[in-house]
Each structure stands twice: as structure tokens, then as C-alpha cells.
Specification:
It contains 18 helices and 2 strands. By secondary structure, it is mainly alpha-helical. The protein has a two-stranded parallel sheet with strand order 1-2. It is about 60% helix and about 0% strand. α9 crosses α10 and α15 packs antiparallel against α17.
């Protein structure tokens, strides 16, 4: 299956560098989904409080700005949690789809809403739980096994390295899942209980440093020397011939990214992965 994970680039290089020194490595994968570490969780919980007052925004015109960021947040704040949340993969929301995809493809999606059904069923499973627990449960069923662990397995196995994930020990997951939400996020601090446990074992500046993603500089790459090659691939015949996308949107996406108006690196990377996947498997 296609795997759209830009940190996979860095993880592969790291696994290659580690191979001469060790064949079994430990990873922190899963700790965010178990202990509530993503800032996205706190943003979603804030939006949930404002939803009763902001849901009317879904009837506002689709294009209130020239970029996608405003459209995405308009969709988020005007939708209930189960419809809004797609984990950190919620990049193309309802308003953006209308410009990004072709009318024919959108009709097909409307008739085959597999993703919506899957997410809604997971939310139904934990409807009796608090909102944070619902988000963590959905991520543990979708984002974690179908993306993060897949990425970690593929990139490390490619370098002949075994990666183990101690935070996903079933006893840890079961215990933390039973705790109230304020043991996971308290006063804006994610992974609250984990950080408290580690006090005395690690320096404060390590425990409470600002969260950093495992990033690669794709924003700069796709605005520089990789811009034209990526553009040629995506706007060339293979993807355009599928009839799935609107060329005008893609052209505007590249121009806005080049000028630094908005970071579209994830969407560009996604389209490149799709292009290569189509070439290999179709």
C-alpha cells in the first residue's frame, strides 16, 4: 500500500547509520497515542468546546481566503468530533476537496464513504468515554497501526534492523487507558503522568522541552531544487489522466508553495507517492 510519511526518509537514514552498531533498537512510537502527546488533541478538545457556537460556519462560503489553512479550520470548528477528526492525516477537509478533486471523483467518494464509516464506527465503540479517550482510541486503531508502525517496520527492516516499541507493551496501554484524561493532559501539558514519572530520572530541560516532530526539510526542498521535478511529475500525464484531480488547483498549489504563502509539502509528497505507486502496481 502507499505510505505517505515524510519522516520515513529520516528514519531510514537513521536505521542505516545505526546498523553497524546495533541490530535491535528501541523507539518511542505509540507514546503520543497512549499518553496524549500530540498538540492536535488539545486543539481538537478546544474546538469541541466551541462547536455548539461555531457549527453554523459550515454554511459560510467555501472560499473565504486564497489558501487552504482557513478552509481547513472552518471545516474543523463547524463539524462534530467524529466527523472532524481524522488524526494527523486530516489534511484535505470538505471545503478543500471541492477544489482539489474532480467532480466525477467526488461523486464516487460520496457514493463510497468507506473512510467515514470506519471512523464513525470507532467513535461509536467508545461513545461512553471522555473526548480525549475517544481520540486516543481512534488513533490506536487507525493512525498508529496503519501509518506510524508501518513506516517504522518498513524503514528499519529495509536497513536490516529490528525496532521495538516498549510504550506499546499491552500492560502499559491497558493501565494508561484506564486513567482519567487529566492524567494525560493537564494545564496544557501532554503526557503529564509520563513526565511526572520521569522526574528524578531525567533533567527537567529534557522532560519539559518543547515537543519536536521527526521532520525533514521538505518545505524547503519543494520550494527549491525539487519544485520543478515534482511539478513535472504531478502535472504530467500519469496523474492527470486519472481524472481524479483539478489541474488548476495543483498549479496554484505549487505557486503558493514556491512563494512561501502556505506549506503544501505534505500534499506534494502525497501526490508523488501516489504517482510512483500507480506506476508500480497499475
Amino acid at each position: 500500500e502507499p505510505l505517505v510519511e515524510m519522516p520515513a526518509i529520516a528514519l531510514y537514514q537513521l536505521a542505516r547509520a545505526a546498523k553497524p552498531h546495533a541490530t535491535v533498537l528501541l523507539s518511542g512510537e505509540g507514546s503520543d497515542e497512549v499518553f496524549g502527546g500530540y498538540g492536535l488533541y488539545q486543539r481538537m478538545l478546544m474546538m469541541e468546546k466551541g462547536y455548539p457556537f461555531l457549527r453554523f460556519l459550515k454554511w459560510f462560503p467555501r472560499h473565504l481566503g486564497s489558501g487552504d489553512r482557513i478552509s481547513k479550520y472552518m471545516d474543523w470548528v463547524s463539524s462534530p468530533l467524529a466527523a472532524r477528526y481524522r488524526g494527523t492525516s486530516a489534511d484535505v477537509t470538505e471545503r478543500i476537496r471541492g477544489s482539489f478533486y474532480s467532480a466525477d471523483y467526488l461523486r464516487y467518494v460520496e457514493e463510497n464513504r468507506y473512510t467515514d464509516q470506519v471512523f464513525s464506527e470507532y467513535f461509536d465503540d467508545v461513545a461512553h468515554c471522555d473526548k480525549l479517550s475517544q481520540l486516543l482510541y481512534v488513533d490506536s486503531k487507525t493512525w498508529l497501526p496503519d501509518d506510524l508502525l508501518l513506516k517504522a517496520d518498513k524503514m528499519t527492516m529495509t536497513a536490516s534492523v529490528e525496532l521495538r516499541v516498549p510504550f506499546l507493551d499491552h500492560e502499559i496501554v491497558e493501565f494508561v487507558s484506564s486513567l482519567p484524561a487529566n492524567y494525560k493532559i493537564r494545564n496544557g501539558e501532554g503526557k503529564f503522568i509520563l513526565k511526572k514519572v520521569m522526574e528524578g530520572l531525567l533533567p527537567q530541560e529534557i522532560i519539559y522541552r518543547k515537543k519536536m516532530g521527526f521532520t525533514v526539510p521538505t518545505e524547503r526542498w519543494f520550494a527549491g531544487e525539487l519544485l520543478e521535478p515534482a511539478k513535472d511529475i504531478i502535472l504530467g500525464g500519469r496523474l492527470m489522466n486519472t481524472g481524479w484531480f483539478q489541474k488548476k488547483y495543483l498549479e496554484n498549489m505549487f505557486e503558493r508553495h514556491r512563494r512561501g504563502k502556505e506549506d503544501y509539502s505534505r500534499r506534494i509528497f502525497s501526490l508523488l507517492v501516489l504517482y510512483h505507486w500507480l506506476n508500480i502496481f497499475t
